[in-house]
């Protein structure tokens, strides 16, 4: 089913929508758009197929027919935008809160999917993956282009969600770690509806972030799948091993290590040991 | 300029340290996580420190006199090893606006955004600081030339930590 661009523009807080059949990366194009002073935000860029989806290193997002792949440009310091529901996204988001935006987007997706397919078990794998029953269904990546006065600093949020792109035919090593909404439910979903549900939750949660609402940290804390697990992360040159104590209010991953508690703002999860 | 310049040199026939040795020492410090080395030989003293700002100093001991016995080119102290120049009004530090991980290039394997000697302008992206998969492109916000890179790619950095030294101009 094709995406309904009119609905996306009329029934969400986005001010503009741009669709492409194929793009190398929606984030790359969104970074270009973000450099245009005249851009009305929030601005949504969609691609039915993404050939070189972003991700650091080898963490490329896979994208097949039926996936939902998009990037959203927002002005975090004037996020009301020009959409039809500006009251849902009001508020100034201080730069110190910006590193939490990927987590906010993940919580928002969980909340949206919990409405659309409530029978499933959703979780967050810190900092940017959304899981269904332990398997990755979506990935998130946020880029912040530099300040180019008079253009305000903007955030470019890219997301890939496996909706109707079944992984049933993919190699076993992919199926063991990934899933799609259609695989988990046996149903096909309207991607427009999925995106509208996410936009609704995300705009509300941006307001919550601006207001420093305690409901947001509660949302990522309760969905953190690593809590209580013994994990190993690579943080720069350091290997960090310990028991995960969840995600703190500022988004840091809390790990109890033999040498004391650690708060991590970066790093790659190498493995879950127990 | 003569073919064999009689420039003054830190290198003497008795001097066991040279630039290659200095590089080796730095590599050893990085490889083993050593934060400080203090070497003394005769009237020469080398004190190398690496910490959050990776400031390294080469300190001649009192009484050190560079002799000109050797015809080799003078041992120039690489800019990244130069003493802190915070007192120089024409030099500024680019500091991290956030906690996170410092990346010197768009992706692993890509050439770095800037290196020592790179001319930067206000808009020039000098690095990325990543925190929780939010990749923050940091602009120089000044016009000048990069004279020191104070952290290495993959390092965890703190709010306000100096990342680069830039000579204004």
Helix fraction of chain A, binned, reads 25-40%
* Largest contact between chains: A-B, 32 and 24 residues
* Shape category of chain B: globular
C-alpha geometry of chain A: globular
Q: How many individual domains of chain A?
A: 2
Query: What is the oligomeric state here?
Result: heterodimer
**Overall pLDDT metric of chain A:** 90
The largest beta-sheet of chain A arranges its strands as 1-2-3-7-6-5-4
Radius of gyration of chain A, in angstroms, nearest whole number: 18 Å
Query: How many strands appear in the DSSP assignment of chain A?
Result: 12
CATH class type of the largest domain in chain A = Alpha Beta
Structural class estimated from helices and strands of chain B? mainly beta
CATH superfamily of the largest domain in chain A: Bira Bifunctional Protein, Domain 2
Low-confidence stretches of chain A: 56-61, 79-88
Q: Largest sheet of chain B, if any?
A: 4 strands, antiparallel
Enter the CATH topology name of the largest domain in chain A: BirA Bifunctional Protein, domain 2
CATH superfamily of the largest domain in chain B: RNA polymerase II/Efflux pump adaptor protein, barrel-sandwich hybrid domain
Which percent range describes the beta-strand content of chain B? 25-35%
Share of residues in strands of chain A: 25-35%
**Average predicted local confidence, pLDDT of chain B:** 68
């Amino acid at each position: 089913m094709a995406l309904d661009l009119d609905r996306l523009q009329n029934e969400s807080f986005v001010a503009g929508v741009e669709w492409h059949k194929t793009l190398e990366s929606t984030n790359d194009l969104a970074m270009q758009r973000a450099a245009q002073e005249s851009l009305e935000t929030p601005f949504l860029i969609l691609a039915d197929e993404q050939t070189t989806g972003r991700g650091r290193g080898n963490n490329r997002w896979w994208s097949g027919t039926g996936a939902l792949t998009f990037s959203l440009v927002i002005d975090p310091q004037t996020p009301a935008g020009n959409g039809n529901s500006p009251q849902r996204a009001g508020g100034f988001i201080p730069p110190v809160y910006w590193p939490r935006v990927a987590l906010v987007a993940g919580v928002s997706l969980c909340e949206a999917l919990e409405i659309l397919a409530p029978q499933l078990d959703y979780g967050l794998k810190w900092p940017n993956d959304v899981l269904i029953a332990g398997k990755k269904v979506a990935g998130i990546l946020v880029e912040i282009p530099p300040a180019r006065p008079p253009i305000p600093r903007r955030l470019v949020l890219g997301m890939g969600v496996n909706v109707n792109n079944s992984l049933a035919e993919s190699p076993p090593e992919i199926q063991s770690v990934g899933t799609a909404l259609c695989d988990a439910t046996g149903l096909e979903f309207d991607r427009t509806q999925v995106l509208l549900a996410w936009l609704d939750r995300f705009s509300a949660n941006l307001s919550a972030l601006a207001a420093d609402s305690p409901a947001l940290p509660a949302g990522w804390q309760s969905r953190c799948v690593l809590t209580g697990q013994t994990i190993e992360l690579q943080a720069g040159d350091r290997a960090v091993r310990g028991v995960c104590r969840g995600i703190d209010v500022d988004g840091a991953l809390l790990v109890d290590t033999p040498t004391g508690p650690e708060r991590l703002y970066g790093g790659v999860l190498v493995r879950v040991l127990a | 300029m003569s073919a064999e310049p009689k420039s003054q040199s830190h290198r003497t026939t008795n001097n066991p340290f040279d630039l290659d040795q200095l590089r080796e020492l730095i590599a050893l410090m990085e490889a083993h996580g050593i934060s400080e080395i203090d070497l003394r030989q005769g009237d020469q003293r080398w004190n190398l420190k690496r910490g959050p700002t990776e400031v390294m100093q080469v300190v001649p001991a009192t009484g050190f006199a560079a002799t000109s016995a050797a015809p080799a080119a003078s041992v120039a102290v690489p800019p990244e090893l130069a003493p802190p120049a915070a007192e120089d009004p024409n030099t500024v530090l680019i500091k991290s606006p956030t906690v996170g991980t410092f990346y010197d290039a768009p992706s692993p394997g890509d050439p770095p955004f800037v290196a020592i000697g790179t001319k930067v302008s206000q808009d020039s992206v000098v690095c990325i600081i990543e925190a929780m998969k939010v990749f923050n492109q940091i602009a120089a916000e000044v016009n000048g030339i990069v004279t020191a890179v104070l952290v290495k790619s993959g390092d965890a950095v703190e709010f306000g930590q100096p990342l680069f030294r830039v000579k204004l101009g």
